[in-house]
Amino acid sequence: MDLLNSVDLIKYYGKKMALDHLTFSIRENEVFSLLGQNGAGKSTTINILTGLIRSDSGTFLFDGHDLKKEPAYFKRNIGFVPQDIAFYGRLTALENTKFFGSLFNLSGRKLHQQAMEALDFVGLSEVANEFPGRFSGGMKRRLNIACSIVHKPRLIIMDEPTVGIDPSSRNHILQSILTMKQGDSTIIYTTHYMEEVEKIADRILILDHGRKVAEGTQKELERKITARHTYTFFLSSTERVDPGALLRLESVCDVTVSKNKVVVSTNIFSRNINDIIAYFTNNRIEILDIENQSISLESTFLALTEDGGKGEGTA
Ligand SMILES: Nc1ncnc2c1ncn2[C@@H]1O[C@H](COP(=O)(O)OP(=O)(O)OP(=O)(O)O)[C@@H](O)[C@H]1O
């Protein structure tokens, strides 16, 4: 069953369209990963959902409740773990967690109990009465998570929660996401780390320039391109490459040109890349290397996004 629907979201910053008719749905009790290169629109989507900014048109529906009409319903049911660590250095871990719980009208024994449960959940109950200033980066991040889940939200949004932390905290966070899922929680997870997505995501939304490129399970996304072979030609220069000419070759279904390489997808039935090689040699474009890519989430992602392969490679 759908827990959350994004319905035709449009967002402009000045003349720049940051979200372009974005529609997707999140099912109850799944880990849903938002993937996209820098500037794809992930933060804009999350900021609209958490009420930080407003869309120009379109809305979110949570259990059928409209964000524009019932923002309080969203606030009550969503826990947001921001990228930047946010808590008070003068309060202990427990006091911080209780403070955030009190913002959701929790008080007394119930507040104390839920705060301790949240700290226990992120593995910080033993340092509950210590000040977080001396915590490691990973412990601070875990405290952040405790503060965001103390009110037991149904939907938890985590914006790159494992950036810049030690491997043991990272594993702890990934493990706790899987545990939350076993409970009643639904989780939206943005990350640059493809291997994390492979490990924990049930379904994935790939965003590119504010548009939905694909939505589905890892297998479904991979299937979108398994009907193709993908070859990467590393070239001395791609200046003279004409993607249109490559696309006119019979076997070629897709071409992506970036700084020093051209990624060519060919029809599954065509194992012959002689015509592609001939194109480069006839145009005096030197081939330095050729790679036949196996299908992985990363290659799926690169194949599906417009800038695939540009820059740092992953989302
Ligand atoms: N406040 C703003 N004013 C103007 N343009 C903005 C603003 N915030 C975002 N943008 C632009 O909107 C587009 C989407 O940005 P957004 O921050 O949502 O992307 P993102 O996928 O979260 O990227 P990142 O991974 O870098 O955080 C980008 O082109 C960005 O430059």
From TrEMBL:
<keyword id="KW-0067">ATP-binding</keyword>
<dbReference type="InterPro" id="IPR003593">
    <property type="entry name" value="AAA+_ATPase"/>
</dbReference>
<dbReference type="GO" id="GO:0005524">
    <property type="term" value="F:ATP binding"/>
</dbReference>
<dbReference type="Pfam" id="PF00005">
    <property type="entry name" value="ABC_tran"/>
</dbReference>
<protein>
    <submittedName>
        <fullName>ABC transporter related protein</fullName>
    </submittedName>
</protein>
<dbReference type="InterPro" id="IPR017871">
    <property type="entry name" value="ABC_transporter-like_CS"/>
</dbReference>
<dbReference type="GO" id="GO:0016887">
    <property type="term" value="F:ATP hydrolysis activity"/>
</dbReference>
<dbReference type="InterPro" id="IPR003439">
    <property type="entry name" value="ABC_transporter-like_ATP-bd"/>
</dbReference>
<keyword id="KW-0547">Nucleotide-binding</keyword>
<dbReference type="InterPro" id="IPR027417">
    <property type="entry name" value="P-loop_NTPase"/>
</dbReference>
<feature type="domain" description="ABC transporter">
    <location>
        <begin position="4"/>
        <end position="234"/>
    </location>
</feature>
